[in-house]
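Retry 2 of 3 after timeout on previous attempt. Resubmitting structure tokens to design endpoint.
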């Protein structure tokens, strides 16, 4: 199974997200990651969808998505020509001498401490899926109290624009 990233430009209307996710579930395709946000064009939103499968599954997904009236365009995001990022907020135990080590770890990952409490800190980090997973793994021994992680977002490198 291969990982595929699709950038889907859709009309920014109520129910579009439900129709897109329903299309996946009806066919038994799992969405690994989904992010949606309005674009600089007020009437449009961009969905970044990560799925696992083979080329046949990818082709079927693209065909089905293109049948939806609200779908404007579909782009396959190749890893080598795309800038991909995730964001994570991690609330971690940081009492006593552990706090300095946690701060050092955050500095190595270019992560930021965005909240400090007597016994915890909240860490914010952006980066590749691997970078975020590595940071989580290194902070786990201190005790992660809470974690929220966005899905993948992607943009084509260079001057080319995803349409």
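Retry 2 succeeded. Sequence:
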């Amino acid at each position: 199974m291969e990982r595929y990233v699709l950038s889907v430009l859709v009309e920014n209307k109520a129910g579009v997200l439900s129709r897109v996710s329903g299309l996946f579930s009806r066919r038994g395709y799992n969405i690994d990651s989904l992010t949606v946000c309005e674009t600089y064009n007020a009437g449009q939103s961009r969905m970044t969808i990560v799925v696992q499968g083979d080329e046949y599954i990818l082709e079927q997904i693209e065909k089905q998505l293109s049948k939806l009236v609200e779908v404007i365009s579909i782009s396959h995001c190749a890893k080598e020509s795309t800038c991909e990022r995730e964001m994570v907020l991690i609330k971690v135990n940081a009492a006593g001498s552990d706090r300095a080590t946690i701060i050092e770890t955050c500095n190595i990952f270019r992560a930021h401490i965005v909240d400090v409490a007597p016994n915890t800190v909240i860490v914010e980090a952006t980066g590749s899926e691997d970078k975020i997973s590595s940071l989580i793994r290194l902070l786990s021994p201190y005790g992660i109290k809470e974690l929220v992680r966005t899905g993948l977002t992607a943009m084509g490198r260079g001057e080319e624009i995803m349409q």
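Attempt log closed. The longest strand covers residues 82-93.
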